[in-house]
Design a protein that fits this description.
The protein has helices at 43-48, 64-67, 85-89, 92-97, 99-106, 111-116, 119-123, 130-133, 176-182, 284-290, 297-307, 319-336, and strands spanning 5-8, 34-37, 56-59, 70-73, 76-80, 186-191, 194-199, 222-229, 237-242, 253-262, 265-274, 281-282. The protein is an alpha+beta fold and 340 residues long.
């Protein structure tokens, strides 16, 4: 690990000031030379691997009293960004009313990591691509902009088939973001220019020609809260995760489903995919194909096929097309059996 400066944020307003003196500093690996630290489960790991080399680390854990609570009302659910993953996953109201959120958190990481990691930090975790995490591979546009992508012609079994580009085919590794996508969550952001609110769908950027720019957050901005609106689809929701083993493993394919039925007819449905895309992926065309139709194996299969139109599999990850489709079908049919 390289030497770095360490600051502790005293308030939400003062936290971004740690970035002020670095505005004119050179980017490090295409990123701002300072990083926020919350649970630390990803940042410290990548610093030890020399994948991330921030000149300054700003510890925001002292802000937990302001951003570490859970509130539920008729309008919806509000989660502080510094709420621990395990706390949200075990919250009775979240389990009962927003089961897709609780399940996505429970199926992520190990119990020890869930006790440390925060919700905001979980959304900002970086890819698990081996070429990104192993600095002996020089060709990684996400770590070393302009160097190429070793995964294109390398071992790419875990990599993305949706939303990727010729500059990066790394997969977004998280689970929680897909659940938030399915529920149309919004994020409260604080930063040097003040506060703003954005849809979760606009947080992550597809790789395009700049895979090192992973989110729409400006330097010094931090997520302070997550809001999920109430709706008739939140109770009939689930997260299905397919992986190589049942414990502490990243998704090969996953689906977050939120469903509103009138009898057996689909009034509204939300489908978000994980394990197959470069960013949390909403399958809106697949959703539209189900509206007004009965939900059965035939309609679910047609929707699943539509969800993967435009996929671009490579040598080792072509299996994800079929696996992803079967995951969507299974998740939709399981959701239909739940009580609304």
């Amino acid at each position: 690990m390289r030497p770095f400066l360490y600051d502790r944020a005293a308030s939400t307003e003062s936290a971004p000031r740690a970035f002020d003196g670095l505005k004119e500093a050179s980017l490090i690996q295409g990123r701002a030379p300072a990083e926020y630290l919350a649970g630390g489960t990803t940042l410290l790991d990548l610093m030890k691997l020399d994948v991330m080399q921030p000149a300054r680390v700003v510890d925001i854990t002292p802000l937990e009293p302001q951003h570490g609570s859970i509130a539920i009302s008729d309008a919806g659910l509000r989660l502080g960004a510094l709420v621990k993953m395990s706390t949200a996953a075990d919250h009775p109201a979240v389990i009962k009313t927003y089961p897709v959120l609780a399940q996505s958190l429970t199926l992520a990481a190990s119990a020890q990591l869930r006790n440390m990691a925060t919700l905001g930090g979980n959304l900002l975790q970086r890819t698990r691509c081996n070429y990104f995490r192993d600095t002996s591979w020089s060709a990684c546009n996400k770590r070393n902009p302009g160097s190429g992508c070793a995964a294109l012609d390398g071992l790419n079994r875990q990599h993305a088939i949706l939303g990727a580009s010729q500059d990066c085919i790394a997969t977004y590794p998280g689970d929680f973001a897909q659940a938030l996508m399915a529920l149309d969550a919004t994020l409260d952001i604080a930063g040097p220019s003040g506060s703003r609110t954005i849809p979760i769908a606009t947080l992550h950027k597809p790789p395009g020609s700049t895979p090192h720019i992973e989110t729409t957050l400006a330097p010094g901005e931090l997520i302070t809260a997550l809001s999920i609106p109430a709706g008739p689809w939140t109770r009939r929701s689930l997260y299905l995760k397919i992986r190589d083993r049942q414990s502490y493993e990243f998704a090969l394919a996953s689906a977050a489903i939120a469903l509103h039925l009138d009898g057996d007819t689909v009034k509204d449905v939300r489908i978000a995919l994980g394990g197959v895309a470069s960013v949390p992926w909403r399958a809106r065309d697949a959703e539209a194909s189900l509206i007004g139709k009965p939900l059965n194996e035939a309609t679910a299969t047609a929707a699943a096929r539509m969800a993967f139109v435009g996929s671009a599999p490579r040598t080792h990850n072509a299996y994800k097309v079929t696996l992803g489709q079967k995951t969507v079908v299974r998740a939709l049919l399981q959701a239909a059996t739940l009580e609304g």
